[in-house]
Each structure stands twice: as structure tokens, then as C-alpha cells.
Amino acid sequence: MIGSILSLLVIGTLVFLMVKNTVEKPEPIESPVTSLSQANELEVAEEGLEQYSPAPDFTLETLAGETVTLSELKGKKVILNFWATWCPPCKAEMPHMESFYSKLTDEDQVELIAVNVTESEKLGISEVENFVKSYKLSFPIPLDKTAEVTRMYGVFSMPTTFMIDTKGRIAQKVIGPLDEKTLNELVDFMD
Q1: In-domain check, residue 117
Q2: Is residue 37 part of a domain?
Q3: How many separate domains does the chain show?
């Protein structure tokens, strides 16, 4: 009996440590987008939105109950990411985004907005809340409950990230997960 309890404790501890290390340390992403030059080779906004066209404005409520309006961020560089909890590349990308976000300062004039396509979540907002807690995400998570904003941006696969310049224009569209190094390169490349 004691041996069984001890075995369960050891297994539980190992599982906890594996999960903790996975959440806290961003793993390298095996992604086609690992550098700025590769991101530049991708076609920008195949349908509807063109490079340097104005980014469509929207207002969404965040998971924290705050409101995010894109046009209010004009003058800053904006990383606008569309993601879902069920998306494996999104899961791989999130620790990199959190690491990137945690190093931003007010001087950087950069905002990271990660729009959850809530309409696609089986368990709805509770699933998003659990994901955010387990990945310890601190950046704004607007909820696109009807996928209206997702459709407005022509997002068909996730993650999809739009780099929006200080003039409120789409500078780049990247399909696929981004790592911290590439995020930094893309931000540096923008006006």
C-alpha cells in the first residue's frame, strides 16, 4: 500500500515538473517562419487586405473585461495575433509571445494583442481562461466571440499575425507560429 502511494507521488511529481518546464520555457518552434527574410517571402494578405492598406478597426472585450479598440493604438507598432486554444502551433507560439511581451517597455511603443477566436472554442471562454492561466499569459486577450473580426481580417488558419505600423497600416501578415527572435525582427522592420 505504501509502495503504491509512493509510486503515485513520484509519478505525480514527474508529471508536474514536465508540465511546469513546458509552460515556463519556450520551446524552439519548428516553423517555416524563423527569420525576417522568410517572413518577407510570404504573400501578404492574399485576400482582401493588402500590404500598407489601413488595418480594419475593431473594438473587442478582453478576457479581463477591458475594451481594446485598434484605432486607439495608432502611433504604436501593433502585433495583432489570431489564435485558438485547440491549435498546436498556437500552443507552441504562446510562450515565445509571453517572453517577448514581458520584455517590452513603454519606450518601445509596441502593443501585443492576441485575439482569441472564441467562436471556435468548444468550451467557450472557460477554455480560454484555463489556457491563459496554464501558460501564464499577461498580454491582452480580446475575445472574438462571433469571429466577425477574424473574418474581417480574412484569417483562415491559425495562428495568423498582422504587423501593424505606427500609421495604422498592415505592414506584414505572417501565417504560422512566431518565435521571440522573429517577433523582434518584425517589430524592428516596421515604421
Answers
A1: yes
A2: yes
A3: 1
Give the SS3 label for residue 96: helix
Report how far residue 90's alpha carbon sits from residue 190's, in angstroms, rounded to the nearest whole number.
Answer: 23
The 10s digit of each residue's pLDDT in 120-155 is: 999 899 999 999 999 999 999 999 999 999 999 999
Grid cell, residue 71, equals: 484605432
Q: Reduced to 3 states, what is the DSSP secondary structure of residue 31?
A: coil
Contacts of 134 (CB under 8 A, 6+ apart): 23
CA atoms within 13 A on the CB side of 25: 8
Helices (H) and strands (E) in the chain, counts: 6, 6
As given in the structure block, the three cell numbers for residue 108 are 518601445
CA angle at 105 for the pair 163 and 140, rounded to the nearest 5° = 55
Q: How far is CA 153 from CA 50, 54, 84, 147, in A?
A: 10, 11, 16, 10
- In single-letter form, the type of residue at position 67 comes to T
Model pLDDT for residues 21-34, shown as the tens digit of each residue: 444 455 554 554 44
- Mind listing the pLDDT tens digit for each residue in 37-85? 444 444 443 455 888 999 999 999 999 999 999 999 999 999 999 999 9
Where residue 120 sits, what CATH number does that domain have?
Answer: 3.40.30.10
